[in-house]
Amino acid sequence: MPTERELFPLRKPVDDPPPRHMSLIDGQPTPLYVLAWVCPPQKLFDNLEKGLPDGTVTDSNFRDYVSDKWDGDFPYELEPMPMYAGGNYYLIVMFNKRSANHIRRIRERDTDPLIQAARVAMGVDNDPSLEATLQWFRFPLRWVLMEKNMKKIREMDERLAALKKQESMDEARADDTTATVTLV
Fold first, then answer.
1. Who contacts 62 (Cβ-Cβ below 8 Å, separation ≥6)?
2. Which of 10, 24, 35, 86 is the most exposed place for a label (fewest CB within 10 A)?
3. pLDDT band at residue 26, thresholds of 50, 70 and 90?
4. How confident is the model at residue 114 (pLDDT cuts 50, 70, 90)?
5. Tally of domains within the chain
């Protein structure tokens, strides 16, 4: 029997939408997923302020700009929302909830009004490179921070191992030098 992580990975490609939230798959309820673009903060601010004076969009006011650009006539739960996690903004388009009708919207994503309105509201239309980042993410995004911290821990472990190896080599050289000096 597959594990929960195998059934419900942390990330899924945009064209492989998760089942509807709480649908049972192999006896396990489907977790909440979000469809989102991933964007570094400065890139988000730059994309949102295209056509505005420099420095207009900041961390404290960017949500106002997203709301001002939001041109969708959709229920409240379908409004786009940027969320910060792990050093990036996740520009959330929709959840895998019944109200989103997410599977149909993905099939028609190039013309779907919700996805297109979110693309404009969050400045994705100003930066085609963001299209490659659109995917499904398990929600909440706490795992992003854990993943980032684990990467830092692995990097520190690798550096520590390299330092120990270097120290061991230095000690071996010192021993060789001592032995040479003693023989002379």
1. 44, 45, 48, 82
2. 24
3. very high
4. confident
5. 2
Q: Determine how many CB atoms are found less than 10 A away from the CB of residue 7.
A: 16
Cα 184 from Cα 168, distance rounded (Å)? 25
What is the enclosing helix (H) or strand (E) of 160? helix 142-183
Contact at 8 Å (CB) between 41 and 85?
A: no
Number of H helices, E strands in the chain: 6, 7
What is the span of the domain harbouring residue 176? Answer: 142-184
Check if the beta carbon of residue 71 is closer than 8 Å to that of residue 117.
yes
Whether residue 117 sits in one domain with residue 81: yes
Enter the tokens of residue 81.
């929302």
Distance CA 61, CA 142 (A): 23
Q: Are residues 77 and 165 in the same domain?
A: no
HSE-CB of 140 using CA atoms within 13 angstroms:
7
